[in-house]
Amino acid sequence: MTEEFKLQPLLDLSRLHLDEATRELGRLIAGEQEASRRLTLLMQYRDEYQARFRAAAQAGLSPAEWANYTGFLAKIDDAVIPAAQAVSLTQQQTLAGKQNWIGKHGRVRAFDTLAERHRAQQASQEHKQEQRASDEVGARIHESGAAQAGLLDTLRGNQGRS
Fold it and tell me: Where are the domains of the chain?
């Protein structure tokens, strides 16, 4: 009879926590990608607007147009700073999420290893019990066969005397 793995509830709980950490890591990675996408778009827009400003400056700009271009570029630059900070923050959060996932994964692997050892030990014990039972049956058959052979010899000996 196999004994159940006593740490199975902990293994199940660890797997549940790993699943949660996996979902959280997926969410963090998506957030990091979105923040990076926003920053990239903002930087591309800034570069395009800067190119338009240069082209317009070469063609000649009035002081008001110059002020409009430089003012808008300053606003874009002001938006780039928090966007870059958001990317940095999401990268840190993703790294922390990866470390959390690695820890949870390691815990599940440790419990899986213990469960596998338990299963192997149980299989070994079952095999030994089956072997012992088989040996006992074989010994009984052998004893029974020896007893029957002795009885036959006795009977044959009694027949020879008669």
Answer: 8-161
Cα end-to-end span (Å), the chain: 56
Q: Do residues 142 and 41 lie in contact, with contact meaning Cβ atoms separated by under 8 Å? A: no
> Mean pLDDT for each 10-residue chunk of the chain (162 residues)?
85 96 98 98 97 94 94 96 98 98 97 94 89 83 68 62 54
Cβ neighbors of 2 (< 8 A, separation 6 or more) are 122, 126
* pTM to 2 decimal places: 0.70
Angstrom distance (rounded) from CA 101 to CA 25: 7
Distances, alpha carbon 101 to alpha carbons 82, 155, 158, in Å: 28, 80, 84
Please determine, looking at this structure, whether the domain spanning 8-161 carries the CATH number 3.80.10.10. no
Residue/partner pairs of 84-92 with CB below 8 Å, 24 or more apart: 84/39, 86/35, 86/38, 86/39, 87/32, 87/35, 87/36, 87/39, 89/35, 90/28, 90/31, 90/32, 90/35, 90/36, 91/32
